[in-house]
Write a structure and sequence with these properties.
Four copies of one chain form a homotetramer. Chain A is mainly α. The first copy, chain A, has two domains: 9-74, Arc Repressor Mutant, subunit A, CATH 1.10.10; 83-201. The first copy, chain A, is built from nine helices and no strands. Chain A has helices at residues 20-40, 47-54, 58-64, 68-82, 95-108, 110-125, 127-153, 163-184, 190-201. The longest helix of chain A is centred in the last third of the chain and has 27 residues, at 127-153. Chain A is elongated, with a radius of gyration of 21 Å. Chain A starts with 19 loop residues before the first helix and ends in an 8-residue tail after the last helix. The interface between A and B is large, with 38 and 37 residues. Chain D binds a DNA duplex (21 and 21 nucleotides) through residues 17, 19, 21-22, 25, 46-48, 56-63, 67-68.
Chain lengths: 209, 209, 209, 209
DNA sequence: AATGAATGAGCATTCATTCAT
DNA sequence: CATGAATGAATGCTCATTCAT
């Protein structure tokens, strides 16, 4: 009665084991999935590959995950939970500095972002998955927007600031940092980036709005 | 005169037919490929599907393309050529307005951009393809950068403007407009966006730099 | 009436053209077929290849031959006709010398023999073809046998000579000369070979039979 | 002890199973391959056919063999190992009798020879395979040659015996026995054949060399 | 629970053959 | 007559998934 209670939550996970050893296997599979998805992409990665890389048999894979897609879902579940962006407080003495910090922390989640690279193709085929990700994106967007709104209410921003558009621009820039670093091989100068973004939002000190 | 000029760029076209009817079939296949890649993604789209959608037999597909990948290459070849961004002239009476025009024209190339959505997964697996795309991106980037440099030399921009970073930010914003429109379903207000971008670049009129 | 008279002989040749130009094309196809069969084998050679090699369109191939197999048949027809072995006259002053000459002339037909290398696989699948070849082989065998019989009747051979077996042995040796030369790269010493064969057949001069 | 010793000779076995049941399947595939290759030839036999004949799914075929060619290689590996000819000892009281025995034992390996019929076409396309077979042939040739040399040194043979040529002739005769039996349907009289061959090698008893 | 052998649907690709031009 | 574009049956091979051990 209690042992099997919430096993089949949402019919998704064939089995989420309680025991330590089994948990390890499950995690090992998740980790292998993540690595291979990021390295080779989602479609080309096979269940067999993941199992082998995790050091278990293919049958074991299907004990813990109904299929590849579900492993990915579990992976995202894990990561998205950890990934809520900090409350951006623009109303501070030094918003630039704060923003730089935010950007940098975002970059620290590069690993998770790795998965992002894998997703675009899936989003087309998998509305459920798309929903999860769009939702996560909306969270980010909402956070940024809230911060901007507060700043605007305080009269700190450009008076004609189109909040939605700016929030979106910031989000897009954030999201593309990892790709940029990968392509160019250069570290991002977060302070510089923050300065630029702030110019979108705040009029220069010397101005009267 | 120039229509067939650089057809063989990426090499390996098994056959580019001269006759009218055959040309139509080839184009029909290209178009079907584009549609299906955008709709369903690259990997999940099969050669058979493309052929059927184009109303030809599978054998015909392989008459004109060595495989799916090569059709994609041909597609990109076509599109990337058309996609050189206009020379961005920041040094004008009204840069905002000009930028808005650029942004809008870029959006008109939404169709081509459709393909962009298809590529991320490929970039991992296909270095040659990645090279083509990164090159195309660098062209854009260089154009934007050039414009910024000229503006800076004229003393029009923020004096401490980090050109590379701004150019990249603008590029990223440009690239993500189509995705945004698709997700939100809203038309982009290019004028508004141009205003924001210009604030990254130019100090407000009332300021002395 | 006369023009079409014997076109469809045996239903085999779709069309054996009377006109010079057409004859040339047909011959060109035959020749290309022969070369490619010998070079690459029968199965791997495609009709398209033969046509291209002959400098005609694939449609033309099918105008003159119903398929690849029939081209091969026509080829064999041609060659086997030319290939009747000479009457072996063992009853001569110097049978060794005569045999050496036969062997050498056989080798001159090496080109035709080239086709032999192509056939073994076909013989399994194509009883009709096998029949043609076995027949041709039987001709050779019969000729050799006849010669031996005459020699035996004259009391020239070993008295206990098992004619069939010797004839077969000689035939086998003959048939394998081209393969041997190809593998070893060495020219065959026909005189030496003839000597050996003669020892199978004739007792040494000093013996009384 | 030695059963599995040199399994990996030709490399590339995707998987040689350890378990009994699986071994049976693998053997079943090998056997089916052999039968079908001999019956229908190599090229026309498909992997699917072999699998079906062996009573397994096509996927199982590819579990044990990378492709048709590799199955053939495994087959040859097995057979060629068993096929080293006995040391031919010509220096005996009764070489004829000994030779007859050799010939007969060779014929007992008819099964292996079955595969020989399959090979000619392959030899053209597959140099690696050709190498294996030519090597095996050279072994035979060398054995025969050695025997002849010893006999010659003892002064038993014709003094002018061209060893290479005779050895080759004997080899060719040996190799063609199976084909002959198949075509004619008659059993070979090994004693008679041995007599003939011996006449190639040894002068008649009554002669002084 | 874990294993990995077995399955077979499904995709990529080739090629003999037809037929409209 | 010649052409070569078009066809689609047939083959090779992969991989997600099941299930007996």
């Amino acid at each position: 009665m209690s042992e099997h209670e919430d096993r089949q939550l949402a019919g998704a996970f064939p089995y989420v084991p309680q025991q330590k050893r089994a948990q390890q296997k499950r995690n090992s599979l998740l980790e292998s999935g993540r690595e291979l998805f990021i390295k080779n992409g989602y479609e080309p990665t096979t269940a067999k590959e993941i199992a082998t890389h995790a050091g278990v048999a293919i049958g074991t894979f299907y004990r813990y995950f109904s299929d590849k897609r579900q492993l990915l879902l579990a992976l995202l579940q894990n990561q998205l939970d950890k990934m809520l962006p900090p409350e951006p407080k623009w109303i501070m003495a030094n918003p630039e500095q704060f923003l730089a910090a935010i950007l940098e922390s975002h970059f620290k989640q590069l690993e998770q972002i790795g998965l992002y690279q894998v997703l675009p193709e899936l989003l087309i085929r998998d509305p459920e998955l798309a929903e999860i990700l769009i939702q996560s994106r909306k969270n980010w967007h909402a956070r940024i927007l809230t911060g901007l709104q507060q700043a605007k209410e305080k009269g700190l921003t450009w008076p004609d600031l189109e909040l939605e558009v700016v929030a979106w621009s910031i989000l897009v820039i954030l999201e593309n940092i990892p790709k940029k670093e990968k392509e160019s091989g250069l570290k991002t100068d977060y302070v510089e980036l923050a300065k630029i973004i702030c110019r979108m939002v705040f009029p220069p000190k010397g101005m009267t709005s």
